[in-house]
Amino acid sequence: MGQVIDAAGNTAGQDPPAPCRVLLLEDSGMDADLVREHLRMIDDHAFDVHRVETRQAFIDAVTDGGPFDLILSDFDLPDFDGMSALAIARDRLPRVPFIFVSGMLGEENAIEALKKGATDYVVKLRMERLQVVVRRALIEARDRNELADKRAALAESEARLRFALEAGRLGSWELTLATNRLRVSSICAANLGLADPADIPTYERLLEHVHPDDREHQKTMVRQAVSSGSPLDMEYRTVWPDGSIHWVQVRGRAVYDKDGAPIGMAGVSLNITDRKKAEERQLLLLEELNHRVKNTLAMVQSIAKQTLRAAPSVEAFPDAFQSRLRALAQAHDLLTRRHWQGASLSEIAALTLEPHVHAGRVKVGGPPVNLTTGVAVSLHLAFHELATNAAKYGALTAENGRVDLDWEIVKPEQTPVRDGVSQSSGQAGSGQGGGRSVRDGGGALVLRWRESGGPPVVPPTRRGFGSRLIERGLAHELEGDVALAFETAGVRCRLVIPLSSRVSPQ
Amino acid sequence: MTDTDLSNLTVLIVEDEPLIAMSLEDALIDQGVACLGPAGSVSAALDMIEAGGFDIALLDVNLRGERVDAVADRLAGAGIPFIFTTGHGAEGLPDAHRTRPVIGKPFRDIDITDALARHRPR
């Protein structure tokens, strides 16, 4: 393999060590040369010496110069002293070894210097010691720096992990199997509704916070994870001190000693209550959707059967059936826009009658009334039947024919019994029924459909789907009184519906 | 089913959807069955049970968002047989009455008449 030569001409892979950068505080040029001389004798290191002579130059070098791998300092200087230099260096460059090189250094000074953080000292009379002292200081510094770097990296990694755990709302925990001692993070405690991790110092204390129905399962899963070595991953319910129930997911793994015996377990915990609630909501929604679809299919089936029954001919079936299906779909569209929270009576009336209102043929009016979804669908289907009949046989077939649909809210004592048309009651058929009657409730909605200006009305010989739906279905559904009259001057329909949570003024 | 015997039978219909109730009535009246109701709410159903006069009931499990447990309890207490009709699965049934016969919506007329013949009191 060929050698790679870099731009500086160094041979990659076997570079000589980078020169060791030395800060030398020495006012005497001769002594400085002596130091350089002795450094050169250290054969496995190269040295790059930066010499300063004054206090200010030293401070500048320590503050902005460097970086340095070693500081060598005289002890006695004209404007400065070695102990002050040491103090500055310890403050600014605590990791750089500091060695005194001095002509005279009494024992007391030496001890004081070492106490204050000097790495070593060499007296100029025994300058040959410098090689040994420097080499040892550099090796020790390197080891010390490596250790410090590792500590810093570990601390940084721990901080990152803690941040990730906190950002993910993950609690962490450790279990010692021999003692069942548990150490948990504050998030882990918070997942159980506890402010203080010290509240669950043991596995037994943790179990007290697990929902009774989930306790055995919890223990079994932990035991299994320990005996099999497979990861623990389970969900359980926890009962918080306030009695509320929350969901926790724990993941972990057993820890083994070098002989393979399990000694503990460690892992994370996560509050998954929101997720569980969303899952439950989704299940409910699916169930509700299923119910609604089945119910709608049953309604379509009913419409089909009854349309077929009432159709004068098989040919008349498709048109009548499709028109009713369309009406049902319209009602669903409106209710979906209202999030299935019901609809207003005027919206429901407009659904069928708006085209005729625009043409000036139909007048609709009344105070605001809220309807629940079931009532809204039934009334819509009833309006659809009335409007279809009017457009086919009634007032809307004639140029001057018109329809008035209006409603009002009446007090109980004002409940009308005029109009003189025969009434179907919500309690009809059985002659006894439950629910509210118009007269004992808190008022009623009175709704009138009146056609005029059309051709003379011929009463039908038998009741069709529309009549049945209005007289039987609607009367029952609304527990109200329904009067449908095929008068010669025009069809009239009057509904008296007791006010309730299903039919309420706004 | 050849042995469908629906003679002299009166059925209480508990159903909140008028279209479905009307369709049930049609099917039953065609078979010569007399119908009571429909009761569209729990309170209406309870009133009609109180008044009596029927042999068996068809019971929708949910009336305007209200569960029919109370109605089922009352019928069971009075020894009157009943058949659930539901758009939900069996899990929608009242817990105390899970062994009762169930007909899923939408149903065929024959499902209704068969079930009535099988479960009517003898």
Q: How is this structure best described in words?
A:
The complex is a heterodimer of chains A (506) and B (122). With 506 residues, chain A is an alpha/beta fold. Chain A folds into 3 domains: 20-147, Response regulator (Rossmann fold, 3-Layer(aba) Sandwich); 168-271, 2-Layer Sandwich (Beta-Lactamase); 339-505, 2-Layer Sandwich (Heat Shock Protein 90). Helices cover 43% and strands 23% of the residues of chain A. Chain A contains 13 helices and 19 strands. In chain A, the strands form 4 sheets. Chain A has a 6-stranded mixed sheet with strand order 12-14-16-18-17-15. A 5-stranded parallel sheet of chain A has the order 2-1-3-4-5, with helices on both faces. In chain A, strand 9 (245-256) and strand 10 form a beta hairpin. Chain B has 122 residues and is α/β, with parallel strands linked by helices. Chain B has one domain (10-119): Response regulator (Rossmann fold, 3-Layer(aba) Sandwich). Helices cover 35% and strands 23% of the residues of chain B. Chain B is built from 4 helices and 7 strands; from the N terminus they run E-H-E-H-E-E-E-H-E-E-H. Chain B has helices spanning 18-30, 42-51, 69-77, 109-119; strands at residues 10-14, 34-39, 56-60, 62-63, 66-67, 82-86, 102-104. In chain B, the strands form 2 sheets. In chain B, strands 2-1-3-6-7 form a 5-stranded parallel sheet, with helices on both faces. A two-stranded antiparallel sheet of chain B has the order 4-5. In chain B, helix 1 links the parallel strand 1 and strand 2. In chain B, helix 2 (42-51) packs parallel to helix 3 (69-77). The longest helix of chain B is centred in the N-terminal third of the chain and has 13 residues, at 18-30. The radius of gyration of chain B is 13 Å and the shape is globular. The relative contact order of chain B is 0.20. The mean pLDDT of chain B is 89. Chains A and B meet through helix 9, helix 12 and helix 13 of A and helix 1, strand 2 and helix 2 of B.
